Amino acid sequence: MTKVSIYMPVYNGSEYLERSIGSVISQTFADWELIALDDESTDDSRAILDGLARRDNRIRVFSKHNDGKGNTARNLAMMEKWAQGEYFFYMSQDDRIDADLLEKAVGEAEKRSLDIVIPDMLLEYADGTTSAVQGSYPPDGDHSLVFSGKEAFYRSIDFSIHGFALINRRLIDEDRQDTNHYDSDEYNTRLQFLAAGRVGFCDSTFYYYQGNENAITKRFSIRWFQRLDTAVMIDKLFSDTFHDHKSFPKLKSWLMAIYITLSVSYMREWANISPDERKAVIAHFRGFERNIKFGGYRMAVLRRLSPLERCFAVWYFFFGTCRNMKSLFRIYKGK
User: Fold this and answer.
1) What pLDDT shows up at residue 3?
2) Are 207 and 97 in contact (CB under 8 A)?
3) Helix (H, G, I), strand (E, B) or coil at 201
4) Which of 10, 107, 275, 276 is the most buried (most CB within 10 A)?
5) What are the respective helix, strand and coil percentages of the chain, to the nearest 5?
């Protein structure tokens, strides 16, 4: 059995593939396979992938029909059927990894009986510079920490720990995975944290590329509003797992921040959204507004938000929505 399967969905990534896959080929750990899934690219991506596969038989290239949905979770589920590794690791077509990442991650997994190993994570920009964000490093920079799956799940809610990790494939439960939304992979990663016995860290770096202006996370898309449905699912998962009131402010403030961000996106892009699309977007918002309960956590949520976010949140608490508050939006734009 191969030790590590690396999953890489590809769509028009010709500008990045040599660098991204090159960082995999350069690994000091040799027992890996890379499964590249080409989503009917219209550039030279498939030719580049085929060329790389001819140079290294650990690279396996597959294709799928592009359905226009950009659903990472669905692509990962497809790649899972072809994978042979004991562990899997996901990276986008424009990300890269340190040469010793797999060696250190597998080493920590085996030495400390870890189900999930989280490397350091830095944002990388088009000019080659990098920056750290919340969750880039383990708490207090301590790579020797080990969390239970439940604790890791809790910390992952607001990305105090990130999800670009080496994960034991036995944690994938097909019956519980969701593939309905463009960001379902965020829900599934949290399921994997929750199912893990032991979660730890390694001191090698994953570089999360921010310089691709065509990435779905950068260009406005109606699909963004599916995050509200995923948020409802995560809220339920969290509520089914934790029952002490001290745990909930972290979750509820994260949920409110998502709602506010998407409300601003909706108001900003309103003129560019067709009437039919607006109906679909409103349905996403109403699903959130109907299902997410803030109850006695309102003051705790407000304390965790920025001053501008508090304006939106207070309006939400009074009126049950803030997506149509154009005056608030004008304040937000002027920040």
Assistant:
1) 98
2) yes
3) strand
4) 10
5) 50, 15, 35
pLDDT at 332 exceeding the cut of 90: no
Residue boundaries of the structural domains of the chain: 2-209, 222-333
Instruction: Please report, for the chain, how many H helices and E strands are present, in that order.
Output: 12, 9
253: nearest Cα among 133, 183, 158, 324: 158
What residue type is assigned to position 46 of the chain?
R
Question: 75-112 b/e with 16+ CB inside 10 Å = b?
Answer: bbbbbbeebebbbbbbbbbbbbbbebbbbbbbebbeee
- Measured CA to CA, the distance from residue 302 to residue 309 in angstroms comes to 8
Burial of 50 (0-12, 13-18, 19+ CB in 10 A): middle
How many angstroms separate the CA atoms of 140 and 207, rounded? 20
Q: What is the DSSP letter of 295?
A: G
Least confident of 14-23, 221-230, 314-323: 314-323
CA atoms within 13 A on the CB side of 267: 19
Return d(Cα 255, Cα 157) in angstroms, integer. Answer: 9
Res. 334: pLDDT tops 60: no
| Angstrom distances, CA of residue 149 to CA of 60, 128, 153, 203, 317 | 32, 34, 6, 20, 33
The pTM of this model reads: 0.93
CATH of 2-209, one of 3.90.550.10, 3.30.70.1170, 3.30.1240.10, 3.30.1380.10: 3.90.550.10
Judge contact between 195 and 173, C-beta under 8 A: yes
How does strand 85-90 pair with strand 59-63? unpaired
d(CA 89, CA 117): 10
**Residues 224, 262: contact at Cβ < 8 Å?**
yes
Give the list of residues 6+ apart from residue 239 with CB closer than 8 angstroms, or none. Answer: none
Q: Residues 149-192: pLDDT tens digits?
A: 999 999 999 999 999 999 999 999 767 788 888 889 999 999 99
CA atoms within 13 A on the CB side of 204: 21
